[in-house]
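### Sample
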Amino acid sequence: MNFYNLLLERKRGRIVDYIENLSKTIIFIEDNLTNKITIEQISKQSGYSKFHFQRLFHQVVGETVAQYIMNRRLTEAAKKLVSDTTSIIDVAFEFGYDSHEVFTRAFKRRFKVSPYQFRQIRITTEYLYKKPINTQYLTNKNFNLLDDIEEVSFENMLLSGYQTANGSREEILSSWSKLRGNITAIDERDFNAYGVIQYPDTFGLEIDFTYLAAVKSVHLKNHNDPDLKSVSLPNSKYIVFSHRGSTKDLPLSYEYIYGVWLSKSKYVVSSSYDFERYHSFADRSNPVIEICIPVQKV
């Protein structure tokens, strides 16, 4: 058993530090729902860099820091609209919105009705609300989805496919569907497919990542599709994690990689992207997905 797999074996008996660190950021956010806060202030609570923290938060929570804060603020604003008679504009100002119009647009996106309608109907259904992250739930998650871990080097790869700037599962699946319609192989298992996640070089509260469902361009039948996007991945050293399970469980593996493994390893992330490699494009019965993180030794 190599060092990486031994480290993985020991993870069950270890106190997972990242949960405690994320708990600190959650408390900080909850304490400042009515205050202006920056990504620097939030990431400082976790002890991680902005780059590392943004990735970790997104994979654990399933939304960006900005989305989480917005939905928590809108939830508390909605509760206030129902519980007392504070004017709508004062509620908007209290939770960081500069105008009635901006607050109303955000509120309608979240609750499908205006703040005025929400107050009139007096909606109190709990499932509509965004609750604070339950860290006990995170603690109870298991990480049995990851298998082998190895260090490899990949040469430059030119990949082409369909991109989404929306991190929702529906949009990502739509990109894969478009890609499937533009491949040449009769047997899709003859080649690899890639899910490339690209992060910005600078961060605000919003991470603005993109997801590219791609293959090497030789496997495309229509190279002139205007919706096609291409990315060139440079020569690099990677740590490759083998994820056994469905794509729906990928966030659990990312959670472990960014929350535990990297912080305990002798590596740091070296580039503003990572990618998933699918060896069998068509076979989803027992998939093994390789999560490839570009790294350098510290």
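Residues 1-15 have pLDDT under 50 and may be disordered. This sample (Helix-turn-helix domain-containing protein) is used throughout the tutorial notebook.
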